[in-house]
Amino acid sequence: MLTLRGTETLAKYMLWIEGYQASGDSSGAIYLADVVGPTFDQAVQKYVDSLTPRDKVYWNKSKKGWSYWGCRAFDNEKDARRSFG
């Protein structure tokens, strides 16, 4: 769904992180929240900015995009489940 705020067009994205398997622990993909912004990148930035300092430290932004504890962030469930269900 798109909404207008001034001249800026905002979109609603689903924020998912991919699954993982490490150190004897594992998890499938996890849905975190609906996020809003002009782009997915900016919507995730707004989400991360809303977290406590303690929770922010686990998020990282690189040229490849956002990740949480090394698990990549996606805007849909299918892509989040692709690497490790």
Question: What does it look like?
Answer:
This protein has 85 residues and is an alpha+beta fold. The protein has one domain (2-84). It has 3 helices and 8 strands. Strands 1, 2, 5, 6, 7 and 8 form a 6-stranded antiparallel beta sheet that branches. Strands 3-4 form a two-stranded antiparallel sheet. The longest helix is centred in the middle third of the chain and has 10 residues, at 40-49. The radius of gyration is 14 Å and the shape is globular.
Compact summary:
The chain is α+β, with helices and mostly antiparallel strands and 85 residues long.
Q: What fraction of the residues are assigned to beta strands by DSSP? A: over 45%
Helical proportion, percent range: 25-40%
**Rg computed from alpha carbons, rounded to a whole number of angstroms:** 14 Å
The poorly predicted ranges are none
Number of strands: 8
Class computed from helices, strands and strand pairing: alpha+beta
State the end-to-end CA separation. 27 Å
| Biggest sheet record | 6 strands, antiparallel
Q: From N to C, what is the helix and strand string?
A: EEEEEHHEEEH
Mean pLDDT: 90
Overall form: globular
The number of domains is: 1
The DSSP helix count reads 3
